[in-house]
Amino acid sequence: MLHSSDFESSQTSSPIAKPSAQRGKHKIFIGMAPGVGKTYRMLEEAQQLKQEGFDVVIGLLETHGREETAQKAIGLERVPLKEMFWQGRSLFEMDTQRIIDRHPQLVLIDELAHTNIPGSKHKKRYQDVEIILEAGIDVYSTLNIQHLESLNDLVHKISGIVVRERVPDRLLDDADEVVVVDVTPETLQERLQDGKIYASEKVDQALQNFFKRQNLVALRELALREVANNIEENSRNGDFANYCTIHERILVCISTYPDSIQLLRRGARIASQMNGRLFVLFVSSPHQFLSKSEALHIETCQHLTQEFEGAFIRQESDDVVGSIVQVAHAYHITQIVIGETRRSRWHLFFRGSIVQQLMRSLPKVDLHIIATS
Predict the structure, then answer these.
(1) Digits of tens for pLDDT over the chain (373 positions)?
(2) CATH no. for residue 182?
(3) Inter-residue contact 36 to 183 (CB < 8 Å)
(4) CATH number of the domain to which 357 belongs
(5) To pair with 167 at 20 to 30 A between CA atoms, which of 80, 132, 291, 302?
(6) Global confidence as pTM
(7) Cα gap 24→103, rounded to integer Å
(8) Which of 237, 267, 283 is the endpoint of a domain?
Protein backbone atom coordinates (compact mmCIF):
# COMPACT_ATOMS: atom_id res chain seq x y z
CA MET A 1 0.00 0.00 0.00
CA LEU A 2 1.15 3.51 -0.72
CA HIS A 3 1.28 5.87 2.24
CA SER A 4 1.58 9.60 2.55
CA SER A 5 5.28 9.36 3.24
CA ASP A 6 5.79 7.75 -0.18
CA PHE A 7 4.92 11.02 -1.87
CA GLU A 8 6.53 13.62 0.38
CA SER A 9 9.15 15.77 -1.28
CA SER A 10 12.68 16.04 0.00
CA GLN A 11 12.13 19.55 1.31
CA THR A 12 12.02 20.12 5.04
CA SER A 13 8.66 20.04 6.80
CA SER A 14 9.65 22.73 9.27
CA PRO A 15 8.83 26.36 8.56
CA ILE A 16 11.85 28.64 8.58
CA ALA A 17 11.87 32.17 9.92
CA LYS A 18 12.33 34.57 7.04
CA PRO A 19 11.99 38.25 6.21
CA SER A 20 8.62 39.32 4.82
CA ALA A 21 10.25 40.02 1.45
CA GLN A 22 10.64 36.25 0.92
CA ARG A 23 7.58 34.29 -0.11
CA GLY A 24 6.29 31.80 2.44
CA LYS A 25 6.36 28.06 1.81
CA HIS A 26 3.13 26.21 1.05
CA LYS A 27 2.48 22.62 2.09
CA ILE A 28 -0.74 20.98 0.88
CA PHE A 29 -2.29 17.89 2.47
CA ILE A 30 -4.38 16.24 -0.23
CA GLY A 31 -6.71 13.25 -0.14
CA MET A 32 -9.26 11.34 -2.18
CA ALA A 33 -12.32 12.41 -0.15
CA PRO A 34 -13.54 13.99 3.09
CA GLY A 35 -12.63 11.99 6.17
CA VAL A 36 -9.26 10.53 5.13
CA GLY A 37 -7.50 12.54 7.86
CA LYS A 38 -5.99 15.55 6.09
CA THR A 39 -6.86 18.07 8.82
CA TYR A 40 -5.84 15.66 11.58
CA ARG A 41 -2.46 15.07 9.91
CA MET A 42 -1.96 18.81 9.44
CA LEU A 43 -2.70 19.47 13.13
CA GLU A 44 -0.45 16.60 14.18
CA GLU A 45 2.52 18.10 12.35
CA ALA A 46 1.69 21.58 13.64
CA GLN A 47 1.67 20.36 17.25
CA GLN A 48 5.07 18.79 16.76
CA LEU A 49 6.46 22.03 15.33
CA LYS A 50 5.02 23.99 18.24
CA GLN A 51 6.81 21.68 20.66
CA GLU A 52 10.02 22.41 18.77
CA GLY A 53 9.53 26.13 19.36
CA PHE A 54 7.97 27.33 16.12
CA ASP A 55 5.34 30.06 16.12
CA VAL A 56 2.23 28.26 14.81
CA VAL A 57 -1.34 29.56 14.64
CA ILE A 58 -4.68 28.40 13.24
CA GLY A 59 -6.06 30.75 10.61
CA LEU A 60 -9.14 28.67 9.79
CA LEU A 61 -10.08 25.22 11.06
CA GLU A 62 -13.05 23.10 9.94
CA THR A 63 -13.54 20.13 12.30
CA HIS A 64 -17.04 19.26 10.96
CA GLY A 65 -17.91 18.08 14.45
CA ARG A 66 -15.15 15.46 14.52
CA GLU A 67 -14.09 15.17 18.15
CA GLU A 68 -10.66 13.63 17.45
CA THR A 69 -9.80 16.50 15.11
CA ALA A 70 -10.98 19.13 17.61
CA GLN A 71 -8.87 17.51 20.35
CA LYS A 72 -5.80 17.68 18.15
CA ALA A 73 -6.16 21.48 17.90
CA ILE A 74 -6.06 22.08 21.66
CA GLY A 75 -3.16 24.32 22.64
CA LEU A 76 -2.75 25.99 19.26
CA GLU A 77 -3.45 29.72 19.08
CA ARG A 78 -6.39 30.67 16.87
CA VAL A 79 -6.44 33.94 14.98
CA PRO A 80 -9.94 35.41 15.56
CA LEU A 81 -12.31 35.13 12.60
CA LYS A 82 -13.90 38.13 10.91
CA GLU A 83 -17.64 38.60 11.39
CA MET A 84 -19.59 39.34 8.22
CA PHE A 85 -23.27 39.91 7.51
CA TRP A 86 -24.97 38.36 4.50
CA GLN A 87 -28.68 38.08 3.78
CA GLY A 88 -29.50 39.11 7.31
CA ARG A 89 -27.25 36.49 8.88
CA SER A 90 -24.07 36.86 10.91
CA LEU A 91 -21.33 34.64 9.45
CA PHE A 92 -17.64 34.22 10.14
CA GLU A 93 -14.77 34.10 7.66
CA MET A 94 -10.99 33.87 7.93
CA ASP A 95 -9.37 37.25 8.72
CA THR A 96 -6.51 37.42 6.25
CA GLN A 97 -5.27 40.84 7.32
CA ARG A 98 -5.23 39.87 10.98
CA ILE A 99 -3.09 36.83 10.12
CA ILE A 100 -0.65 39.04 8.21
CA ASP A 101 -0.52 41.52 11.10
CA ARG A 102 0.08 38.70 13.59
CA HIS A 103 2.79 37.34 11.22
CA PRO A 104 3.44 33.86 12.64
CA GLN A 105 6.00 31.50 11.17
CA LEU A 106 3.25 29.08 10.15
CA VAL A 107 -0.53 29.36 9.76
CA LEU A 108 -2.94 26.44 9.30
CA ILE A 109 -5.73 27.06 6.79
CA ASP A 110 -8.27 24.30 6.17
CA GLU A 111 -10.27 23.66 2.96
CA LEU A 112 -8.32 25.47 0.27
CA ALA A 113 -11.21 25.26 -2.24
CA HIS A 114 -13.71 27.08 0.02
CA THR A 115 -15.76 29.89 -1.54
CA ASN A 116 -15.72 32.99 0.64
CA ILE A 117 -18.84 34.78 1.83
CA PRO A 118 -20.10 37.30 -0.75
CA GLY A 119 -18.63 40.70 0.04
CA SER A 120 -15.22 39.29 0.98
CA LYS A 121 -12.17 40.88 -0.60
CA HIS A 122 -11.41 37.65 -2.47
CA LYS A 123 -13.86 35.16 -3.92
CA LYS A 124 -11.90 32.03 -2.97
CA ARG A 125 -9.90 31.05 0.10
CA TYR A 126 -6.90 30.01 -1.99
CA GLN A 127 -6.58 33.66 -3.08
CA ASP A 128 -6.29 34.68 0.58
CA VAL A 129 -3.65 31.97 1.02
CA GLU A 130 -1.62 33.44 -1.84
CA ILE A 131 -1.68 36.86 -0.16
CA ILE A 132 -0.49 35.32 3.11
CA LEU A 133 2.33 33.51 1.31
CA GLU A 134 3.38 36.76 -0.37
CA ALA A 135 3.64 38.28 3.12
CA GLY A 136 6.36 35.74 3.96
CA ILE A 137 4.24 33.41 6.12
CA ASP A 138 4.37 29.64 5.69
CA VAL A 139 1.00 27.94 5.12
CA TYR A 140 -0.27 24.41 5.71
CA SER A 141 -3.56 23.78 3.89
CA THR A 142 -5.88 20.90 2.95
CA LEU A 143 -7.52 19.90 -0.31
CA ASN A 144 -9.56 17.02 -1.77
CA ILE A 145 -8.52 15.75 -5.20
CA GLN A 146 -11.97 16.37 -6.72
CA HIS A 147 -11.52 20.14 -6.31
CA LEU A 148 -8.73 20.41 -8.91
CA GLU A 149 -10.02 22.30 -11.97
CA SER A 150 -8.55 19.99 -14.63
CA LEU A 151 -10.09 16.90 -13.00
CA ASN A 152 -13.62 18.30 -12.81
CA ASP A 153 -15.01 16.42 -15.82
CA LEU A 154 -13.26 13.20 -14.81
CA VAL A 155 -14.59 13.39 -11.24
CA HIS A 156 -18.09 13.93 -12.63
CA LYS A 157 -17.66 10.86 -14.83
CA ILE A 158 -16.48 8.79 -11.86
CA SER A 159 -18.98 9.92 -9.25
CA GLY A 160 -21.81 11.59 -11.16
CA ILE A 161 -21.34 14.65 -8.94
CA VAL A 162 -20.55 18.14 -10.23
CA VAL A 163 -17.97 19.74 -7.93
CA ARG A 164 -18.62 23.49 -7.89
CA GLU A 165 -15.81 24.58 -5.58
CA ARG A 166 -12.60 24.27 -7.61
CA VAL A 167 -9.03 25.51 -7.49
CA PRO A 168 -6.55 25.99 -10.36
CA ASP A 169 -4.00 23.22 -10.86
CA ARG A 170 -1.16 25.72 -10.50
CA LEU A 171 -1.67 25.65 -6.72
CA LEU A 172 -0.41 22.07 -6.67
CA ASP A 173 2.36 22.94 -9.13
CA ASP A 174 3.50 25.93 -7.08
CA ALA A 175 3.34 24.19 -3.70
CA ASP A 176 6.68 23.58 -1.99
CA GLU A 177 5.48 20.26 -0.64
CA VAL A 178 2.49 18.03 -1.34
CA VAL A 179 1.51 15.16 0.96
CA VAL A 180 -1.17 12.65 0.03
CA VAL A 181 -3.06 11.44 3.11
CA ASP A 182 -4.17 7.96 2.16
CA VAL A 183 -6.50 5.30 3.60
CA THR A 184 -8.18 2.35 1.92
CA PRO A 185 -11.76 2.73 0.64
CA GLU A 186 -12.85 0.12 3.20
CA THR A 187 -11.34 2.11 6.07
CA LEU A 188 -13.02 5.28 4.85
CA GLN A 189 -16.40 3.57 4.62
CA GLU A 190 -15.94 2.23 8.16
CA ARG A 191 -15.21 5.77 9.40
CA LEU A 192 -18.34 6.95 7.64
CA GLN A 193 -20.50 4.23 9.22
CA ASP A 194 -19.03 4.98 12.64
CA GLY A 195 -20.21 8.59 12.33
CA LYS A 196 -16.69 10.01 12.15
CA ILE A 197 -17.27 11.90 8.89
CA TYR A 198 -20.94 12.92 8.66
CA ALA A 199 -23.91 12.91 11.01
CA SER A 200 -25.70 9.55 11.25
CA GLU A 201 -28.69 10.71 9.18
CA LYS A 202 -26.39 11.42 6.21
CA VAL A 203 -24.44 8.14 6.26
CA ASP A 204 -26.75 5.99 4.11
CA GLN A 205 -27.11 8.67 1.45
CA ALA A 206 -23.33 9.16 1.34
CA LEU A 207 -22.72 5.41 0.96
CA GLN A 208 -25.22 5.26 -1.89
CA ASN A 209 -23.61 8.20 -3.72
CA PHE A 210 -20.14 9.71 -3.41
CA PHE A 211 -18.80 7.11 -0.95
CA LYS A 212 -19.57 4.06 -3.12
CA ARG A 213 -16.58 1.73 -3.08
CA GLN A 214 -15.98 1.98 -6.84
CA ASN A 215 -15.98 5.77 -6.60
CA LEU A 216 -13.48 5.74 -3.74
CA VAL A 217 -11.18 3.28 -5.55
CA ALA A 218 -11.12 5.54 -8.64
CA LEU A 219 -10.65 8.74 -6.62
CA ARG A 220 -7.88 7.17 -4.58
CA GLU A 221 -6.01 6.17 -7.73
CA LEU A 222 -6.58 9.66 -9.09
CA ALA A 223 -5.12 11.28 -5.98
CA LEU A 224 -2.05 9.04 -5.92
CA ARG A 225 -1.37 9.53 -9.63
CA GLU A 226 -1.88 13.29 -9.51
CA VAL A 227 0.59 13.74 -6.69
CA ALA A 228 3.08 11.38 -8.36
CA ASN A 229 2.80 13.34 -11.60
CA ASN A 230 3.21 16.60 -9.70
CA ILE A 231 6.40 15.42 -8.03
CA GLU A 232 7.76 14.14 -11.34
CA GLU A 233 7.07 17.44 -13.12
CA ASN A 234 8.69 19.44 -10.31
CA SER A 235 11.77 17.20 -10.35
CA ARG A 236 12.73 18.12 -13.90
CA ASN A 237 14.75 21.15 -12.89
CA GLY A 238 17.74 18.88 -12.19
CA ASP A 239 20.17 17.55 -14.77
CA PHE A 240 19.27 14.58 -16.97
CA ALA A 241 21.88 12.26 -15.47
CA ASN A 242 20.45 12.58 -11.95
CA TYR A 243 16.79 12.75 -12.97
CA CYS A 244 14.60 9.87 -11.80
CA THR A 245 11.23 9.35 -13.47
CA ILE A 246 8.13 8.00 -11.80
CA HIS A 247 6.45 6.93 -15.03
CA GLU A 248 8.09 5.29 -18.01
CA ARG A 249 8.45 7.62 -21.00
CA ILE A 250 8.60 5.84 -24.35
CA LEU A 251 9.98 7.47 -27.51
CA VAL A 252 9.14 5.88 -30.88
CA CYS A 253 11.44 6.97 -33.72
CA ILE A 254 9.63 6.85 -37.06
CA SER A 255 10.69 7.51 -40.64
CA THR A 256 9.02 7.70 -44.05
CA TYR A 257 9.10 3.92 -44.36
CA PRO A 258 5.58 2.35 -44.19
CA ASP A 259 6.62 0.00 -41.37
CA SER A 260 6.82 3.04 -39.06
CA ILE A 261 3.13 2.52 -38.30
CA GLN A 262 3.98 -0.94 -36.98
CA LEU A 263 6.69 0.63 -34.80
CA LEU A 264 4.28 3.25 -33.52
CA ARG A 265 1.67 0.67 -32.54
CA ARG A 266 4.28 -1.45 -30.79
CA GLY A 267 5.50 1.59 -28.87
CA ALA A 268 1.93 2.49 -27.92
CA ARG A 269 1.39 -1.04 -26.56
CA ILE A 270 4.58 -0.79 -24.50
CA ALA A 271 3.46 2.59 -23.12
CA SER A 272 0.02 1.21 -22.29
CA GLN A 273 1.35 -1.93 -20.58
CA MET A 274 3.74 0.14 -18.47
CA ASN A 275 1.24 2.93 -17.80
CA GLY A 276 3.82 5.21 -19.42
CA ARG A 277 3.78 8.29 -21.62
CA LEU A 278 4.15 8.03 -25.39
CA PHE A 279 6.28 10.31 -27.54
CA VAL A 280 6.80 9.92 -31.31
CA LEU A 281 9.71 11.56 -33.14
CA PHE A 282 10.15 12.18 -36.86
CA VAL A 283 13.43 13.75 -38.02
CA SER A 284 13.30 15.14 -41.56
CA SER A 285 16.18 16.40 -43.62
CA PRO A 286 16.15 20.18 -44.19
CA HIS A 287 17.54 19.57 -47.71
CA GLN A 288 15.01 17.02 -48.86
CA PHE A 289 11.30 17.53 -49.59
CA LEU A 290 8.80 14.81 -48.78
CA SER A 291 6.82 13.29 -51.60
CA LYS A 292 3.05 13.41 -51.44
CA SER A 293 2.82 9.80 -50.24
CA GLU A 294 5.56 10.36 -47.64
CA ALA A 295 3.84 13.48 -46.32
CA LEU A 296 0.56 11.58 -46.10
CA HIS A 297 2.32 8.76 -44.24
CA ILE A 298 3.78 11.14 -41.65
CA GLU A 299 0.38 12.80 -41.25
CA THR A 300 -1.16 9.36 -40.61
CA CYS A 301 1.49 8.71 -37.94
CA GLN A 302 0.68 12.04 -36.32
CA HIS A 303 -3.05 11.20 -36.19
CA LEU A 304 -2.28 7.77 -34.75
CA THR A 305 -0.13 9.37 -32.08
CA GLN A 306 -3.05 11.59 -31.08
CA GLU A 307 -5.35 8.56 -30.93
CA PHE A 308 -2.89 6.88 -28.59
CA GLU A 309 -2.84 10.11 -26.49
CA GLY A 310 0.83 10.64 -27.23
CA ALA A 311 2.92 13.67 -28.19
CA PHE A 312 4.18 13.99 -31.78
CA ILE A 313 7.55 15.73 -32.19
CA ARG A 314 8.92 16.81 -35.57
CA GLN A 315 12.45 18.13 -36.07
CA GLU A 316 14.57 19.14 -39.06
CA SER A 317 18.16 17.95 -38.95
CA ASP A 318 20.76 16.01 -40.90
CA ASP A 319 21.91 14.47 -37.61
CA VAL A 320 19.25 11.88 -36.80
CA VAL A 321 21.08 10.37 -33.82
CA GLY A 322 21.85 13.81 -32.39
CA SER A 323 18.16 14.74 -32.64
CA ILE A 324 17.07 11.55 -30.89
CA VAL A 325 19.57 12.17 -28.08
CA GLN A 326 18.47 15.78 -27.71
CA VAL A 327 14.77 14.82 -27.52
CA ALA A 328 15.56 12.02 -25.07
CA HIS A 329 17.23 14.52 -22.75
CA ALA A 330 14.55 17.18 -23.16
CA TYR A 331 11.64 14.81 -22.46
CA HIS A 332 13.39 12.53 -19.95
CA ILE A 333 12.83 9.45 -22.09
CA THR A 334 13.36 6.07 -20.38
CA GLN A 335 12.83 3.76 -23.39
CA ILE A 336 13.34 4.18 -27.14
CA VAL A 337 11.66 2.09 -29.85
CA ILE A 338 13.40 1.95 -33.23
CA GLY A 339 13.24 -0.31 -36.29
CA GLU A 340 16.01 -2.59 -37.47
CA THR A 341 18.60 -0.83 -39.59
CA ARG A 342 18.37 -0.67 -43.40
CA ARG A 343 21.91 0.56 -43.85
CA SER A 344 24.57 -1.39 -45.74
CA ARG A 345 27.35 -3.32 -44.06
CA TRP A 346 29.92 -0.80 -45.39
CA HIS A 347 27.99 2.09 -43.84
CA LEU A 348 27.82 0.26 -40.51
CA PHE A 349 31.51 -0.59 -40.69
CA PHE A 350 32.64 3.00 -41.24
CA ARG A 351 30.07 4.96 -39.23
CA GLY A 352 28.59 2.46 -36.79
CA SER A 353 24.90 1.64 -36.31
CA ILE A 354 22.31 3.98 -34.83
CA VAL A 355 21.86 1.46 -32.00
CA GLN A 356 25.55 1.62 -31.07
CA GLN A 357 25.58 5.41 -31.18
CA LEU A 358 22.45 5.63 -29.02
CA MET A 359 23.83 3.15 -26.49
CA ARG A 360 26.97 5.27 -26.14
CA SER A 361 25.05 8.56 -25.89
CA LEU A 362 22.16 7.30 -23.71
CA PRO A 363 23.57 4.55 -21.47
CA LYS A 364 20.63 4.73 -19.02
CA VAL A 365 17.89 4.49 -21.67
CA ASP A 366 16.52 1.09 -22.73
CA LEU A 367 16.40 0.39 -26.48
CA HIS A 368 13.82 -1.76 -28.26
CA ILE A 369 14.86 -2.80 -31.80
CA ILE A 370 11.76 -4.01 -33.60
CA ALA A 371 11.93 -6.32 -36.60
CA THR A 372 9.90 -4.63 -39.33
CA SER A 373 10.39 -6.82 -42.39
Answers:
(1) 333 443 343 333 445 444 446 999 999 999 888 888 899 999 999 999 999 999 999 999 988 888 888 999 999 999 999 989 888 888 899 999 999 999 999 999 999 999 999 989 999 999 999 999 999 999 999 998 888 887 777 788 877 877 888 888 889 888 999 888 888 888 888 888 877 777 777 777 777 777 778 878 888 887 877 776 665 555 555 544 555 555 688 999 998 888 888 889 888 888 887 778 899 999 998 888 888 999 999 999 999 998 888 999 999 988 888 999 999 988 889 899 988 765 544 444 434 467 788 888 888 888 888 876 5
(2) 3.40.50.300
(3) yes
(4) 3.40.50.620
(5) 80
(6) 0.59
(7) 11
(8) 237
Domain with 22, as residue range(s), is 4-237
Rounded Cα distance between 14 and 251, Å, is: 40
Say if residue 9 is in the same domain as residue 116.
Answer: yes
Is 246 found in the same domain as 228? no
Same domain? 249 vs 192: no
